[in-house]
Automatic annotation (TrEMBL):
Pfam entry (one): Porphobil_deamC
Gene name linked to the record: hemC
Protein name: Hydroxymethylbilane synthase
Span of domain Porphobilinogen deaminase N-terminal: 6-204
Pathway listed: Porphyrin-containing compound metabolism; protoporphyrin-IX biosynthesis; coproporphyrinogen-III from 5-aminolevulinate: step 2/4
GO molecular function: hydroxymethylbilane synthase activity
Residue intervals of the Porphobilinogen deaminase C-terminal domain: 227-296
Annotated function: Tetrapolymerization of the monopyrrole PBG into the hydroxymethylbilane pre-uroporphyrinogen in several discrete steps.
Biological process, per Gene Ontology: heme biosynthetic process
InterPro entries: HemC, Porphobilin_deaminase_N, Porphobilinogen_deaminase_C, Porphobilinogen_deaminase_C_sf
Taxonomic source organism: Flammeovirga aprica JL-4
EC number(s) from the headed UniProt entry: 2.5.1.61
Needed cofactors: dipyrromethane
Subunit and partners: Monomer.
Catalytic activity field: 4 porphobilinogen + H2O = hydroxymethylbilane + 4 NH4(+)
């Protein structure tokens, strides 16, 4: 093990590279050798269509999985949020980094913007979840689609596309754009997407168990893992990826239980779809599945069918 160099596959965007270097450092702190292998994915190449139109299935993961399968890399580093809920039988998530603050923020290059429920600002986002939530809580805002990596999006905003961008705090912070944050969105109304703020490590199931164990030991945060596995159980039951307006967040309570809340962001005027449970830590995946079942049974199935058309 000491002699083996762990090959870390990553996308080439700055955020992906930050996350991959972060994982590399954690491995090196545990006395492992590691190197990065940079891989381009379909999601990085296609920038002219919104993500929901390309289809969520594996646009950021397919090429990485190919390399996991053929041994070009040992592990792949992803934003947990970008991972489809059901991996192929050949792959598994073997570690989750300690979660960063997982809320969404507005960033802007403009000063003195007044941001409240009646603001008539132009907001850039490409997430169907964020669009649905924004329509409800910022009814006077105009929402525009913006694709590309964080740097591209910020440039488009500065070029006049929008007043603010709605982004995950985690990515903004990792890219050191904290100075541009003009508003923080609360978790209870703008509940994040599954896995937001966490970096997940994927491997082929056939990866040498000694390497798997070493990676897990160096990188995995068990408290985060419990929560994200619960959120992913929710997403799996919904059979969704990042192209549906699903939200789910699991957090630890003070007495060491887990509070899990999830649902679908609905168009304005329709009854909200959100269910919340507080459960023992070993029941969080069951709770996630249950929330998805209730979501589907209470208007969610119809909403998803409508969105497909
Ligand atoms: N959809 C892209 C994506 N995937 C992960 C992050 C941010 C980092 C994270 O949530 O861990 C982002 C950017 C964003 O949503 O603003």
């Amino acid at each position: 093990m000491a002699e083996r160099i762990i090959k870390i596959g990553t996308r080439k965007s700055k955020l992906a590279l930050w996350q991959a270097y972060y994982v590399k450092e954690l491995l090196e702190k545990n006395n492992h050798k590691a190197e990065l292998v940079l891989i381009e994915t379909k999601g990085d190449k296609i920038l002219d269509r919104s993500l929901s139109k390309i289809g969520s299935k594996g646009v950021f993961t397919e090429e990485l999985e190919e390399q996991l399968r053929n041994g070009g890399i040992d592990i792949a580093v992803h934003s947990a949020k970008d991972m489809q809920a059901s991996l192929g039988d050949d792959f598994e998530l073997i570690a989750f980094t300690e979660r960063e603050a997982c809320h969404d923020v507005f960033v802007s290059h403009k000063e003195g913007l007044e941001i409240n429920a009646s603001s008539e600002i132009v907001i850039g986002t490409s997430s169907v979840r964020r669009v649905a939530m924004l329509k409800k809580h910022f009814p006077n805002a105009k929402i525009v689609d913006v694709r590309g990596n964080l740097q591209t999006r910020i440039q488009k905003m500065k070029d006049g596309l929008c007043d603010v961008l709605m982004l995950a705090y985690a990515g903004v912070h990792r890219m050191e754009y904290d100075d541009m944050i003009v508003h923080e969105l609360p978790l209870d109304t703008f509940t994040p997407a599954t896995g937001q703020g966490c970096v997940a490590i994927e491997s082929a199931v056939t990866l040498d168990s000694e390497v798997k164990e070493a990676v897990r030991k160096a990188i995995n945060d068990e408290d985060t893992e419990r929560c994200v596995r619960g959120e992913r159980a929710f997403l799996k039951e919904l059979q969704g990826g990042c192209s549906i307006p699903a939200f789910c967040l699991a957090t630890w309570t003070e007495d060491k239980q887990i509070n899990i809340t999830g649902g679908l962001a609905v168009p304005e005027g329709k009854p909200q779809i959100r269910y919340t449970y507080t459960v023992d830590a070993d029941k969080v995946e069951e709770a996630g599945t249950q929330i998805a079942k209730e979501t589907l049974a209470n208007g969610g199935a119809e909403l998803l069918a409508e969105l497909k058309n």
